[in-house]
């Protein structure tokens, strides 16, 4: 991780306004980004001593607010809980250096900002020290900072930052402020509380749906059940006559019903009749998509993803073959999609993982330039990748433009389940050769399914605005293609085991279904397949599954470290009577996670008893948030493995709400024990990496308990 | 659809309004009274995000027509503790329960109703009271710990009177 050679921290103070430092995160750590340095304020120290940080990554539960503040606070020598924060608006300075967009995703917020944000804090501290030296005539070497105060070592002076901020603002920004040694950290690795707890337990946290718009009209949309199935005609006469209704009219996505409150809009929507164009695709049922994926596996025309070593010669001692299959999944964030748009003040209120895309989509809907629009990003009631796609912002903008007033669009749970950007389905065929000693001579893994990036880019451009190829998608596409989009095969390609011959191939099978990024993306399916099949090989070789993994992983690898941790944590091999364990290990987002899931069998079904999780994520910033994310990721994966399945019939998603798209509830959720490997390596991701191993660890536990190898998700015991 | 005049106690204060009688309490709270602490999650009483107390009993406000609360007492997350310092709220902070936080108003209201009738609930009691509340961030384990932390403190806790910070 290196910082840009060019300047990136800049003094943005205005006269008498305290100290304001800005920097462009897009420039930090990325030599490829061209263009002028365009800083935005990240850190303000006001004359009253208030320290305010702009949070340019969104808070959807993963702890960004706390993590990013902790980085600045550590170097600035202030307590993290004394720092105020604001959600950043849209600005080029906030673009992610890896995505070229202002996106929160890919579990990279701490990894990418670890040095730059500390550098901002260190620069401010250095300037405050210089200011104190100027005012007191005490050399900087005899001064130090503690808890928001510059003090002299002889005890002569104690100047709070607020009193120094304006003097500091006249100074130049140091080019290379010294960063603290890890041994001197007060908060990094030690800060455990979250800074956004109180508003979230008091009901005062403002999510997109809570944006303060008491006078906004509320809109709902009556949609064709078929994704992108165009509207032919509608009858809104009955709806228009109902109480509280402002207007009923067609937009691209369906029929907008605008009312004085949500309930009136929802009731009137039930009275709207629509006719739509059925899909002309042959792949409009889950069963036909399933067959197409199987046919692609059989056809054998795979793009080469990885080829290592040589095909072994002669007859195999043991040949193991198996097919695996995973379904479409919805995100099911607790807060249904929503957005508020004011066409007159040109403001947008939304909780979005990609506020700059939200701004562009609002601009298209309103027919004005994006630069004229202010996005007020809110807390996100769950993201998991769904809120990276701002389709709902485009809809809200189209409706607001027609109405000419501030409108809040609120999706129903059914809209949310049926019009998601789904985790793609995927089928895998695996084949491996074992020799008489249980060594793996050959590993072949062929995948068939849709290319996520191709589908996503299509859905977000011409799928919403015919003929439109937005510049930001080109940026996005360039960014992704530059690194070779591997979202369909990631995790299969990087198979960590040292097998003599490895062959991974992929066949793209296009479907008309809208696809998107779902927590851990490609890893959400590859880890299940790889770690289940490795388990099959261990059993075929007659070797303990955890020992088999250790013996095939490179010495000194993080994989081995976390496996050893989880072995200890779960007391592997010594489960209580009637309990059965399964293990899996997987690397994603630069972190490695090993999990053991422990189950019993009750009423013929697996009962989740306990889960154990060990992560290597480099330097930890907030240990309890890492534990939270492990607990969260494990349950997210187990929920999908036990229950998650979206099916389509004649182009329409068949599930709608939590009764037919169920998720884990309190009585079904196991306790999760977490171990974090101690490390001072650069930090890596935590928001997603706990999800991928969970389904495989569960499936392996089911095999241990029942002898049934379940290769299709969600699990259905015979 | 007819408008009806409704009177009820809302967080200890008399509330009077005139509204179409089929309107669920959730949308009266959110869209008429601008009280956004109670959340919309599913609209079918399946997720618990909209949980409030009706005469002390936890109910799903998304499925409760306003006409049914005439003369009754409603408590929302805003009214649970004037300073946001109900023992459960303190326990939620101490255990770092919230992640995205969207479901937590409903979780806390369900837990508060549980502790009001059962000062030291067992794991089964907690499962029975809380399994109607979904959390997609998977905070269940911490919710369980927070309920246990707060149990036994509810009976001795005195609500503060100072105005809560916005």
Notable traits:
heterodimer, A: 718 residues, alpha+beta, seven-stranded mixed beta sheet, 28 strands, disordered N terminus, B: 166 residues, 6 helices, disordered C terminus
Poorly predicted sequence stretches spanning 5 or more consecutive residues of chain B: 162-166
Largest sheet of chain A, if any? 7 strands, mixed
Beta-strand percentage range of chain A: 15-25%
What class do helices, strands and sheet pairing of chain B give? Answer: alpha+beta
Mean pLDDT of chain B: 94
Number of strands of chain B: 5
The share of residues in helices of chain A is 25-40%
**Strand neighbour order, sheet with most strands of chain B:** 2-1-5-3-4
Largest sheet geometry of chain B: 5 strands, mixed
Q: How many whole angstroms does the radius of gyration of chain A measure? A: 27 Å
Distance between the termini of chain B: 36 Å
Largest interface: A-B, 70 and 62 residues
Quaternary structure classification: heterodimer
How many angstroms separate the termini of chain A?
Answer: 50 Å
User: Roughly what is the average pLDDT of chain A, rounded to an integer?
Assistant: 92
Shape of chain A, please? globular
Specify the helix fraction band of chain B. 25-40%
Task: Write down the overall geometry of chain B.
Answer: globular
The string of secondary-structure elements of chain B, in order, is EEHEEEHHHHH
Low-confidence stretches of chain A: 1-6, 29-38
């Amino acid at each position: 991780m290196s910082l840009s050679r060019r300047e990136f921290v800049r003094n943005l103070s205005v006269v008498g306004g305290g100290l304001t430092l800005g920097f462009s995160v897009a420039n930090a750590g990325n030599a490829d980004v061209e263009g002028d340095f365009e800083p935005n304020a990240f850190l303000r120290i006001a004359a009253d001593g208030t320290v305010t940080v702009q949070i340019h990554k969104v808070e959807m539960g993963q702890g960004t607010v706390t993590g990013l503040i902790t980085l600045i606070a550590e170097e600035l020598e202030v307590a993290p809980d004394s720092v105020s924060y604001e959600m950043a608006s849209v600005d080029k300075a906030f673009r992610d250096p890896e995505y070229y967009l202002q996106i929160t995703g890919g579990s990279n917020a701490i990894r990418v900002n670890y040095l730059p944000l500390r550098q901002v804090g260190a620069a401010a501290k250095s300037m405050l020290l210089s200011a104190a030296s100027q005012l007191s005539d005490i050399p900087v070497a005899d001064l130090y900072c503690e808890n928001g105060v510059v003090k002299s070592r002889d005890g002569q002076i104690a100047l709070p930052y607020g009193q120094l901020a304006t003097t500091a603002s006249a100074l130049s920004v140091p080019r290379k402020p010294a960063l603290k040694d890890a041994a001197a950290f007060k908060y990094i690795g030690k800060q455990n509380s979250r800074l956004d707890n109180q508003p979230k337990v008091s009901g005062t946290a403002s999510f997109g749906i809570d944006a303060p718009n008491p006078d906004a009209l509320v809109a709902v949309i009556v949609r064709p059940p078929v994704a992108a199935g165009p509207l032919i005609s509608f009858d809104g006469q009955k709806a228009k006559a109902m109480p509280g209704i402002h207007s009923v009219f067609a937009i691209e996505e369906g029929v907008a019903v605008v009312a004085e409150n949500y309930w009136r809009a929802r009731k009137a929507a039930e009275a709207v009749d629509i006719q739509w164009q059925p899909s002309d695709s042959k792949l409009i049922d889950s069963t036909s998509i399933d067959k197409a994926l199987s046919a692609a596996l059989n056809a054998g025309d795979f793009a080469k993803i990885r080829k290592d070593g040589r095909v072994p010669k002669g007859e195999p001692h043991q040949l193991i073959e198996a097919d695996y299959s995973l379904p479409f999944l919805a995100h099911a964030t607790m807060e249904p999609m929503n957005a508020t748009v004011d066409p007159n003040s040109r403001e947008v209120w939304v909780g979005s993982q990609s506020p700059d895309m939200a701004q562009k989509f609002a601009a298209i809907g309103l027919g004005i330039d994006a630069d004229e629009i202010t996005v007020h990003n809110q807390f996100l009631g769950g993201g998991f990748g769904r809120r990276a796609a701002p389709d709902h912002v485009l809809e809200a903008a189209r409706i607001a433009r027609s109405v000419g007033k501030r409108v809040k669009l609120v999706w129903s749970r059914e809209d949310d389940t049926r019009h998601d950007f789904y985790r793609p389905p995927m089928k895998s065929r695996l084949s491996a050769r074992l020799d008489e000693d249980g060594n793996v001579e050959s590993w072949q893994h062929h995948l068939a399914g849709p290319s996520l990036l191709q589908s996503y880019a299509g859905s977000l451009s011409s799928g919403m605005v015919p003929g439109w190829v937005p510049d930001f998608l080109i940026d996005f596409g360039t960014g992704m293609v530059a690194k070779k989009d591997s979202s369909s095969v990631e995790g299969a390609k990087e198979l960590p085991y040292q097998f003599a011959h490895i062959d991974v191939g992929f066949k793209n099978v296009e479907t008309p279904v809208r696809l998107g990024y779902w927590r851990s993306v490609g890893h959400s399916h590859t880890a299940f397949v790889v770690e289940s099949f490795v388990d099959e090989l261990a059993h075929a070789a007659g070797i303990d599954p955890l020992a088999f993994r250790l013996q095939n992983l490179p010495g000194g690898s993080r994989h081995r470290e976390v496996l050893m941790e989880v072995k200890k944590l779960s007391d592997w091999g010594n489960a209580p009577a009637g309990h059965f364990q399964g293990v899996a290990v997987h690397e994603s987002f630069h972190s490695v996670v090993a999990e053991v899931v422990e189950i019993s069998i009750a009423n013929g079904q697996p009962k989740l008893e306990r889960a154990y999780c060990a992560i290597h994520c480099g330097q930890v910033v907030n240990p309890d948030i890492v534990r939270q994310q492990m607990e969260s990721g494990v349950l997210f994966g187990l929920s999908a493995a036990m229950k998650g399945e979206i099916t389509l019939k004649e182009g329409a998603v068949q599930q709608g709400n939590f009764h037919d798209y169920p998720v884990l509830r309190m009585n079904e959720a196991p306790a999760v024990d977490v171990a974090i490997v101690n490390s001072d390596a650069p930090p890596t991701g935590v928001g997603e990496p706990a999800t991928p191993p969970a389904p495989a660890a569960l499936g392996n536990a089911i095999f241990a308990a029942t002898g049934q190898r379940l290769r299709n998700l969600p699990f259905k015991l015979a | 659809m007819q408008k009806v005049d409704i009177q009820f106690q809302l967080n200890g204060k008399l509330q009077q309004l005139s509204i179409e009688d089929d309107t669920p309490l959730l949308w009266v709270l959110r869209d008429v009274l601008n009280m956004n602490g109670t959340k919309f999650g599913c609209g079918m009483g399946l997720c618990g995000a909209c949980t409030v107390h009706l005469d002390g009993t936890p109910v799903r406000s998304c499925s409760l027509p306003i006409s049914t609360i005439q003369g009754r007492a409603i408590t929302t997350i805003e009214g649970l503790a004037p300073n946001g310092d109900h023992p459960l709220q303190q326990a939620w902070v101490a255990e770092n329960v919230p992640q995205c936080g969207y479901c937590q108003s409903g979780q806390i209201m369900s837990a508060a109703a549980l502790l009001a009738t059962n000062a030291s609930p067992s794991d089964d009691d907690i499962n029975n009271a809380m399994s109607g509340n979904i959390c997609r961030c998977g905070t269940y384990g911490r919710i369980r710990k927070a309920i246990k932390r707060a149990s036994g403190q509810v009976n001795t806790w005195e609500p503060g009177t100072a105005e809560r910070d916005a």
